[in-house]
Amino acid sequence: MGEADVILGIRIKDESNGIAIPQSHYIEKVLKKFNYFDSTPVSTLMDASEKLMPNNGQAISQLEYYRVLELLNASKKQTCITSSTMESEFVALAATGKEVEWLKNLLLEIPLWVKPIALISIRYDSAATLAKAYSHMYNGKSRHLGVRHSMIHERITNGVVSLEFVRSQQNLDDHFTKGLARDLVIKSAERMGLKSN
To answer: Within its chain, how far is the Cα of 105 from the centroid?
Structure first.
């Protein structure tokens, strides 16, 4: 059969110093689908120094924008309504814990993977969210958030994950969530072990 080069839509390249998982083919597919393949590439998504202005030109099609988000899996039905930023972060933390547990179970099924699998650390920049996750009792009114509290607390107790506080300045996912200057994007990508071609 030979070596796999695409698994579940993820392209895999075997290189001399390891395995690379480039996303260029996926990005190209999206650009072609929406006729943006000839767009000029930029080094960062949006530099923090850029000032946004009102669009006085051609209107953007809301339907096309929605289709792009749908294709990128950025748009899903909201499953839980929250009333505060901390509650929203707690919902995200519970979803992350679920993904970590799935990954850990996948690694357990790989015969050559070294066992036991080390505790997986989730770094978070919200002290209030972490305090609530480690608390034995959920004292909120929302049943949906109570269920999520139970899920993440159980994963902590069972040794699936550990939660660590990280200051916003050391938060590696900043360039996924906000506009940053190019040097900060590069520094953060290097700290994650990423490199460009």
So the answer is: 19
